[in-house]
């Protein structure tokens, strides 16, 4: 399978060579055949032993991507793919494998591996978001590795392969700015996502793309849970479904993530957090806005000042105030844009626990249901008791 490697070739100092570790007994659990065909990938090859090695990052051509990130408001200068590999690009999409083992960016104590539950969660959630019309990374495959790994208990290991318009994040730009590569990375991002724009235009396009996506989150009651700058893409796609969940009854203070101890990323804060993240992006672009630092700051401030109107306009487009509330069939009858079905928290949690214990039948039932959000599915029809419900990132 021949892939392009334009990101690594254009920006060699933004990546590190990385190869997936050998796996004791890899088994293909899920293959998104329609997506594979859309990308021009050979489905039969992907199902073969060589295809699995390719998906597991064992071709010797993969790279771990460098990035920084403000995590819950605190800057980590060097993060990067500590358990993932950019396999390459095809049909204008990145192929990216998570849980493949240690990379040059792995943190001390990390095994670089993925647990089955979180990999299945990301696949299901990304398919649900795709069906709900939200810009998102997509799940291409989930592979069990045959390896047992230690988390809160011993669980099966797995790798999830996803696609994305790119994996360039605000955190990528932060790393580039700190390592004197911002012009090269910004030029690549413009060519990849917003051809013909200047640097101010790039910033404005990202504002619009991200505002449109977060407005859709707000309409659906989707709570990302970890809106760090390294999880804010320049393409506007939703990325990283670790501790995410859907709000089932309207409350602006709702959050579920176990690592969001102060509720920084609660439902009602998501638009303002996006603005905060975009301000960090503007900081990286200051040298490109103008050679005069004072004029550059004026450009950043004047462009950033557009954010409130852009965000409010996106929320109005999604008619958030009209459709946010209990996600029920009755609500769907009142603004038909609201779904009948969302991935409810209790059923999803149950499916992932059963899958971890070796039974994926309920998971596959849910997976088919979330692909058809306008239809009534008994398996996802009623909210559960979410008192004290917590989600975990799975790393």
UniProtKB/TrEMBL annotation:
In the Enzyme Commission scheme, what number(s) does this protein have?
2.7.7.-, 2.7.7.108
The residue range of the signal peptide is none
What are the GO MF terms of this UniProt record?
AMPylase activity; ATP binding; magnesium ion binding; manganese ion binding
Domain of life according to the entry: Bacteria
Q: Which UniProt keywords apply?
A: ATP-binding, Magnesium, Manganese, Metal-binding, Nucleotide-binding, Nucleotidyltransferase, Transferase
Essential cofactor(s): Mg(2+); Mn(2+)
Instruction: Reply yes or no: does the keyword Nucleotide-binding apply.
Output: yes
Q: Which InterPro entries match?
A: SelO (IPR003846)
Give the binding site residues for Mg(2+): 231, 240
Record Pfam families: SelO
What EC class does the entry list? Answer: transferase
Reaction catalysed by this enzyme: L-tyrosyl-[protein] + ATP = O-(5'-adenylyl)-L-tyrosyl-[protein] + diphosphate; L-seryl-[protein] + UTP = O-(5'-uridylyl)-L-seryl-[protein] + diphosphate; L-seryl-[protein] + ATP = 3-O-(5'-adenylyl)-L-seryl-[protein] + diphosphate; L-histidyl-[protein] + UTP = N(tele)-(5'-uridylyl)-L-histidyl-[protein] + diphosphate
Residues recorded as binding ATP, renumbered to this chain, are: 80, 82-83, 98, 111-112, 162, 169, 240
Q: Does the keyword Nucleotidyltransferase apply?
A: yes
Enumerate the active-site residues: 230
PANTHER family annotated for this entry?
A: PROTEIN ADENYLYLTRANSFERASE SELO, MITOCHONDRIAL
Q: Which HAMAP family match?
A: SelO
Record family assignment: Belongs to the SELO family.
Q: What does this protein do?
A: Nucleotidyltransferase involved in the post-translational modification of proteins. It can catalyze the addition of adenosine monophosphate (AMP) or uridine monophosphate (UMP) to a protein, resulting in modifications known as AMPylation and UMPylation.
What this protein is called in its record is: Protein nucleotidyltransferase YdiU
Q: Which organism is it from?
A: Corynebacterium casei UCMA 3821
